[in-house]
Amino acid sequence: MITNLFRDFPAAAQNGNAETFEALLTQPNLHIERIVSTGQASPPDFWYCQTQGEWVLVLQGSAGLQLEGETQERHMQVGDFVEIPAGCRHRVNWTDRKGPTVWLAVHYGAIPVSTI
After folding, report:
1. Do residues 63 and 89 lie in contact, with contact meaning Cβ atoms separated by under 8 Å?
2. Which terminus of the chain has a lower count of CB atoms within 10 Å, N or C?
């Protein structure tokens, strides 16, 4: 069980092998997770498009977030957050390669059963 967002990263995150997603709280229509990125980005020409809304906050590190229809990438730094409405296509262009980027993501609305 995670009790501190800045400790006890999964081995894949510690090694920089993979981005990790860990559930912190799951309730009907609510899913809160810690995401640890270590230089990962969305694949070229890939866009996420989720059936639920997402509010995401950068707790450590930095990242480049692109929302469809916006001409400028959002340079996300510690303390920056954004709401991504359901159905809004978005992608992560880059994450910090100097250290982990720790995100707090709150998914709300119709949460897919596979996530719970």
Report:
1. no
2. N
Q: How far apart are CA 2 and CA 34, in angstroms?
A: 9
The chain-wide mean pLDDT, for the chain, equals 94
Q: Specify the DSSP element, H or E, that contains 102.
A: strand 101-108
pLDDT tens for 35-48 read 999 999 999 999 99
Please, what's the b/e burial string for 22-50 (b: 16 or more CB within 10 A of its CB; e: otherwise)?
Answer: eeeeeeeeebbbbbbbbebeeeeeeeeeb
**Predicted TM-score of the model (pTM):** 0.91
- Rounded-to-integer distance, Cα 54 and Cα 31, Å: 9
Contact yes or no for 107/56 (Cβ under 8 A): no
SS3 of residue 68 by DSSP = coil
Taken in order 101, 9, 106, 89, the sign of the CA dihedral is: positive
